[in-house]
Amino acid sequence: MADLISVCEVFYSIQGEGMTMGRPSVFLRLAGCNLLCGGPGTQHDGALHNGATWRCDTIELWMKGLAMDCREVFTSEQLAFLRKGAHLVITGGEPLLQQNQIQNVINFLASQDIRPYIEVETNGTIASELDLDQYNISPKLRNSGVKRADRYKPEILLGLSENHCQFKFVISSETDWQEIEKDFAFIPPNQIWLMPAGESQTQLAATRPVVVELAKAHGVNYSERLQIVVWDRKTGV
């Protein structure tokens, strides 16, 4: 049913990444994804496969979901935060798999006279028909362990880039930049954010210096991952 949306979690926090880092936000995490970062099999054993150097930190969440009425997704407290100006960040998994349902959620909020600034996190492989305030596009590189044909859709990336957007890349080593230069040369430097790979404060501490120097050298933006820096957790904070 179009009025039901598959939800993993909903929580209030601050945006931890990219151009709106630090903004109070209500996060709506949706179930399902069309990519498997970490390589085939990582969902079963938690290990890295197919040359991956990192794995999706929300697999255990987006593989499960609860079907909810689009009018009942948010608590009264979360609605109050949205009324006060908190951003709505729709994430996953890959939320653009549920575009009709997202529109139903937006319509419900509008019926309550709530019109938040809406960001959507996407891997850039699915075209969008949604009219949103910001697209946070995270194209996957070779280091994700996902086949190139599945993760690299330049025509869709170009279409998404016509919106207010940023491109966030997870970086494990200096060689990752070579792939960005080759495959994503059409993205202006001021729209690129580099983020260190890592699921813990210890891992971020190891990759952060490399990523900072890459951002400086190539004149692009650096993004922290505040959810890990502050709480040493990947989700729900």
Unreliable spans = none
Major sheet: 9 strands, mixed
Strand content is 15-25%
Helix content: 25-40%
Give the strand order, joined by hyphens, for the main sheet.
3-1-2-4-5-6-7-8-9
| Gyration radius, in Å | 17 Å
Per the principal axes of the C-alpha atoms, what is the gross shape?
A: globular
- SSE class: alpha/beta
Mean pLDDT value: 94
H/E element string? EEHHEHEHEEHHEHEHEH
Please count the helical segments: 9
CATH architecture of the domain at 4-168: Alpha-Beta Barrel
Give a count of the beta strands, DSSP E runs of length 2 or more.
Answer: 9
Distance between the termini: 30 Å
- The CATH topology of the domain at 4-168 turns out to be TIM Barrel
> Mind telling me the CATH class of the domain at 4-168?
Alpha Beta
In CATH, what is the homologous superfamily of the domain at 4-168? Aldolase class I
Attribute tags:
single chain; alpha/beta; 9 helices; 237 residues; TIM Barrel; 9-stranded mixed sheet
SSE layout and pairing:
Elements: E1 4-14, E2 24-30, H1 42-45, H2 59-62, E3 66-69, H3 76-83, E4 87-91, H4 99-111, E5 118-122, E6 134-137, H5 148-151, H6 154-160, E7 165-171, H7 175-183, E8 192-196, H8 201-218, E9 221-222, H9 226-231
Parallel strand pairs: 2-4, 4-5, 5-6, 6-7, 7-8, 8-9
Antiparallel strand pairs: 1-2, 1-3
